Amino acid sequence: MSVALKAKIADLFEEPACDKNQAKSEKDRKKGCGKQLAPGAAAGGCAFDGAMIALQPITDVAHLVHGPIACLGNAWDNRHSASSGSQLYRTGFTTDTNELDVIYGGEKRLFKSIREIIEKYDPPAVFVYQTCVPALVGDDVEAVCQRACEKFGKPVIPVNAPGFAGIKNLGNKLGAEALLDYVIGTVEPEFTTPYDINIIGEYNLVGELWQVKPLLDALGIRILACIAGDGRYNEIASAHRARVNMMVCSKSMINVATKMQQRWGIPYFEGSFYGIGDMSDSLRQIAQLLVQQGAPDDLLVRTEQLIAVEEARAYQRIEPFKQRLTGKRVLLITGGVKSWSVVAALQEAGLVIVGTSVKKSTREDKEKIKDIMGDDAHMIDNMTPREMYDMLREARADIMLSGGRSQFVALKARMPWLDINQERFYAYAGYEGVIELVRQIDRALSNPVWQQVRIPAPWGDDGETLGMV
């Protein structure tokens, strides 16, 4: 690992907004809170994968993976991040390094790849991702990017996040550091307004951002930059002129919010777009901070008027579902902001949360869960598949909401399951998203297939002998 990368990781470990760091002494903070991984040993996603997740939703730039083609195949398009414009981000670019590059170095191949991309596609910028093999060989990606930038007159951004540097979450932050080092603050916006905000840690999964943007538009609030869902290079480069930052997922990009506050004095808060109440609270906090930053006071009144209209309509539309869903028990296996924000949305529909995963949640996330569910909140730190299965089979939950990796546990238990993570096909953000979430839960629970699969087989084997693998 290069000296520069080690220094960058050490800096990230001293993140002042990290809940673990706040409980440590200054000496302990510098020791870090994770260990370097052996190449290929990052279970659940490596640092490179995390960097790609964080930055690939920037839609108009070329994302070039410097490494073996398998790295690109593993990370390409692994989230349903939607774009309202350019589709260049969905094109996979790789240098496809081979054995000769390991022997002689892959810097020339990288430079030629950058040149070919610029000549064929003319993007506003090229993001170059370092992976394990060239990092171990010693390719100087930063020097190649600097040379290409001088040669072709376009920003070429090195993202130094080889997989062995750490886990996926560290990669999220390393990708964000590339934005802070090379992108944010390099372009001035054409104009600014007192209503400019940035949204950080929002990836526009299946178009969720588009369910929130009309609400902000109605208030005259402009999203100067979204980092990174449906993002544009020039918008993100001019993000330093926003008046307020909203942090959607602090687990992935808290370093962007804290460093933008340090460098440009932009205040931030962490909010959620999931649930009627949380959506309203986020609109209120945005309005309050904008007024504190100089926006006209009438913004607060207009915000309350909009909230009153939207909340009344949303509660009216979920009422028919609430009559059938009240009392149904939900097991929520997710993490981060969804560990508490989705809880509030489910409770608004009368659902009972029997447990919510906090494996990827911060201390603030856990405190919010306690505020919503009470001190006896069933927070699950690391539930095994066997424990999930037992909970479902013993009817302590009527449905499980999780990511795709856990769906087979619910299906094996012959219980309904709904995708709540990044692979989903329905948008659940905003007032409209809450209604869609409740509708999908109702459909899953009402599906007649569950009654059919629970009928004992004619030969008397109800499937229990299969057990769990």
From TrEMBL:
Cited InterPro entries: Nase/OxRdtase_comp1 (IPR000510), Nase_comp1_CS (IPR000318), NifE (IPR005973), NifE-like (IPR049939)
The alphabetized list of GO BP terms reads:
protein-containing complex assembly
UniProt keywords, alphabetically: Nitrogen fixation
- In Swiss-Prot or TrEMBL terms, this protein is called Nitrogenase iron-molybdenum cofactor biosynthesis protein NifE
Q: A Pfam family name for this chain?
A: Oxidored_nitro
| Family as reported in the entry's similarity comment | Belongs to the NifD/NifK/NifE/NifN family.
Write out the function statement from the record: This protein may play a role in the biosynthesis of the prosthetic group of nitrogenase (FeMo cofactor).
Q: The organism's lineage?
A: Bacteria, Pseudomonadati, Pseudomonadota, Betaproteobacteria, Burkholderiales
Record domain Nitrogenase/oxidoreductase component: where: 46-445
By which gene is this protein encoded? nifE
What Gene3D superfamilies does the entry give? Answer: Nitrogenase MoFe cofactor biosynthesis protein NifE, C-terminal, Nitrogenase molybdenum iron protein domain
What SUPFAM superfamilies does the entry give?
Helical backbone' metal receptor
The GO terms this record gives for MF are:
nitrogenase activity
Coiled-coil ranges per UniProt: none
The pathway this protein participates in, as annotated, is:
Cofactor biosynthesis; Fe-Mo cofactor biosynthesis
